[in-house]
Amino acid sequence: MSAALPVFAADQVRLRLPMATCIDLLTDLHAAISRGEVELPLRTGVPLPFEPAGSNALLVMPGALTNPAVFGAKLLSIYPGNGQAVPPLRSSRVMFCSSMAPAVPRLPWWMPPA
Q1: Are 36 and 61 within 8 A, CB to CB?
Q2: What is the secondary structure of 25-62 as a DSSP string?
Q3: Which of 12, 27, 42, 108 is the most exposed place for a label (fewest CB within 10 A)?
Q4: 81 shares a domain with 56
């Protein structure tokens, strides 16, 4: 039986992933992009037929890293006509580890608080 997937609110993410750690991770990522170790296909936009027509969309932003062998996507919903109760932009991210990859260390925000 697998463990339940944790879902964190924004304040919980900030607690688990300090800005200094974000900067270090992004520095490493940009270096990997420069070395050609990252695949970043163009995002795909899917117009959604909901009212008001023509302004709603689903964006899919995939990416893959060779070391460690991980891949994932950011999913972004855009509803400019939403009112105050529901944000016009909402997103989720999903990450996968290649079956051929060694164990990938957990990022601090994946771990429960100490």
Answers
A1: no
A2: HHHHHHHHHHTT-EE-PPPEEEEE-PSSTTSEEEEEEE
A3: 42
A4: yes
Amino acid at 97: C
- For the chain (length 114 residues), average pLDDT per consecutive 10? 73 86 88 90 87 80 85 88 76 78 45 37
Rg (CA), the chain: 17
Burial of 34 (0-12, 13-18, 19+ CB in 10 A): exposed
Asked if 15 and 44 sit in the same domain, the reply is no
Alpha-carbon torsion 19, 20, 26, 29, what sign? Answer: negative
Yes or no: say if 102 and 81 are a contact pair by the CB < 8 Å rule: no
